[in-house]
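pasting for the record
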Amino acid sequence: MRQAALVTGSSRGIGFAAVEALAKAGFAIAINGPEEDEELRSAVRRIQAHDVPVIAAPFDVSDTQRHADTLAFIEDRIGPLTTLVNNAGVGVIQRGDLLDVTEASWDRCQTVNARALFFLSQAFARRLLAGKRDVGLFYSIVNVTSSNATAVAVQRSEYCASKAAAAMVSKALAVRLGSENIAVYDVQPGLIATDMTAPVIEMYRQRAADGLTLFPRVGTPEDMGSIIAALASGQLPYTTGQVIAADAGMLVPRF
C-alpha cells in the first residue's frame, strides 16, 4: 500500500515544495488551495509528472464543517491517508505597532493558523483511529508553524501568537497520539523566500549574510519540502513531539 498525504496550502510556496518532495518519495498526493483556480490546477499538472496519484482538494481550511467530508472525498480518490501536513497559513493584515493591532487581523491569524490546524488534525486523527491501519506504513501529522512561535516580531505580534498556539497544539497532539503510533512534528521555518516574505526578504537576505543565521543565506521552499518529506517518510524513527527548527541556526543563543 502507498503512503498518501494531504498538504494544505500546497498550490505554491512551501506547500508545493512539500508535495513535490513527497511525490518524489512515492506518496499519493492531495493538493489543497482555498478554491479551484488555475494555480491549483497548474500545481496538480506539475505533480502528475512524477507519476503518482494526485488530485486537487480545493477547500477553505478555516471551514471546519467541511473537514470530515473533505477527508472522505480525498480517500475515495487516492486511498487511505497516512499523512497530514498542516501548511496553510496567513500573515497579518498590516505590519505595525502592537498597540494598533485590530481584532480582524488577530482573528484572521488565529482562525487559519491555529484553529483550522487544530480541527483538521482532530478530524484526521479521528479517521485514522476509526479505520484499519497498515502496520507497514508510517502515520504522521506535520505542522508547519514558524520561528515566530518562539521569537517575537513585534510588528506581527498577532501572527506570532497564532504560531505559538499552533506549536502548543503540536505538542498536545503528540502526547495524545503517541500511544497510537502516530507521530507529530512541528516544523518551524525561519527566513524562507516565499510570496509571504517577498516584501522584506531582501532585507533579511542581507541580515543573513551579516550573521543573523549561522548559514549565511535565507532558506528556500525546497529546503522545507525536503524536511517535511523526511519526517513524513519516517526517516527520523523513534521521534515525536519534536520541534524542527528549520532556521539555519538563527535562534541558537550566542554571545
